[in-house]
Amino acid sequence: MRKIILLMHVSLDGFVTGPNGEMDWVIHTEEEQNYVTDLLNTVDTVLFGRVTYQMMESFWPTVHAHPVWSKSKYHAEHAGWIEKTEKIVFSKTLEKVDWNNSRLVKEHIPEEIAKMKQQSGKNIVMIASTSIAQTFMQLGLIDEYRINVNPVVVGGGKPLFKNIKDRIDLKLVETKTFSSGVVELVYGVKRGEV
């Protein structure tokens, strides 16, 4: 069965953005980029909320024509990967999605995810998309949390864990410390374990 993996950058105090929505504190050295690339090679579907989808759609298709980003091996490879990867967008307000290999889901999220997890293929990753991630947490749909803790305290902003009503028991699967000071924590969700 395919897994739903949440990949998220957070500050040490648990925020995914700063007080004004800024994310300039997220560290993306080559070491972190290579680690993310290795993860993305194990997935063939990416999940987005509306805001993240629109941000990604406005950037990644332009990379190959951009005078700076097109020279970056990481950006060029990631642009190619995301272009061919299936993209599922969860939104009640969007009417359509136009980016290549994109599909819109407006309702029945648990049923849609259950069908996707039963299909053949690689794992499924949710990148950023805090609001939909929180919905998935509340519905118990995330199987693995990959949290990259950045060595910064931002003092406020959008928290990763918000309005979680039920306890989520986790098992530490892996940790990795990058030379930048970022620590990746990988937790699997315990389901029915004592």
Structure description:
The structure is a single chain. This protein is α/β, with parallel strands linked by helices. It has one domain (4-189): Dihydrofolate Reductase, subunit A (3-Layer(aba) Sandwich), CATH 3.40.430. The chain has five helices and eight strands, in the order E-H-E-H-H-E-E-H-E-H-E-E-E. The longest helix has 12 residues, at 73-84. The chain is globular and about 50 Å long. This is Dihydrofolate reductase. InterPro entries: DHFR-like_dom_sf (IPR024072), RibDG_C (IPR002734), Riboflavin_Biosynth_HTPR (IPR050765).
Highlighted features:
alpha/beta; Dihydrofolate Reductase, subunit A; 5 helices
Short account of what is shown:
By secondary structure, this protein is of the alpha/beta class. The protein has 5 helices and 8 strands.
Question: Strands, helices and their partners?
Answer:
Blueprint: E1 4-11, H1 30-40, E2 43-49, H2 50-59, H3 73-84, E3 86-90, E4 102-105, H4 109-118, E5 123-127, H5 130-139, E6 144-150, E7 170-177, E8 183-189
Parallel strand pairs: 1-5, 1-6, 2-3, 2-5, 3-4
Antiparallel strand pairs: 6-8, 7-8
